[in-house]
Amino acid sequence: MDKEIKDVMEKFFNRLVEDKKAEFEDGMRHWMHLISIAYKFGFEMGYEKGYSDSDGPNSEDILPSENVE
Q1: Number of Cβ atoms within 10 Å of the Cβ of 8
Q2: What are the tens digits of pLDDT across the range 15-27?
Q3: Which string of b and e fits 13-48 if b means at least 16 CB within 10 Å?
Q4: How far apart are the C-alpha atoms of 46 and 14, rounded to whole Å?
Q5: What is the distance between the terminal CA atoms of the chain, rounded to a whole angstrom?
Q6: Please, is 56 exposed, middle or buried when counting C-beta atoms within 10 Å of its C-beta (0-12, 13-18, 19+)?
Q7: CA distance 42 to 65
Q8: Is the pTM of this model over 0.90?
């Protein structure tokens, strides 16, 4: 009887570990996809030309002008 319970618990644990592993891999795949999109978007915005966050092509739209009245 104890052997049967141990086998059932071991199968349950192994299945739980496999499910969590698959869930983690799916999550990592999702985050890597988002990171690649953000990286590509940064290049399209001109950051590959050496712009920093404060002097990028759209910095006038983001940062307030010093001559604002």
Answers
A1: 10
A2: 999 999 999 999 9
A3: eeeeeeeeeeeeeeeeeeeeeeeeeeeeeeeeeeee
A4: 48
A5: 83
A6: middle
A7: 23
A8: no
What is the residue type of 37? I
The answer to whether the beta carbons of residues 28 and 20 sit under 8 Å apart is: no
Phi, psi of 58 (to 5 degrees): -110, 20
Rounded to whole angstroms, how far apart are CA atoms 3 and 11?
12
Please state the rounded mean pLDDT for residues 20-47. Answer: 84
User: Which candidate, 13, 11, 12, 9, places its Cα nearest to that of 1?
Assistant: 9
Could you give the CA distance from residue 48 to residue 60 in angstroms, rounded to a whole number? 19
Give the integer Cα–Cα distance in Å for 42 and 44: 5
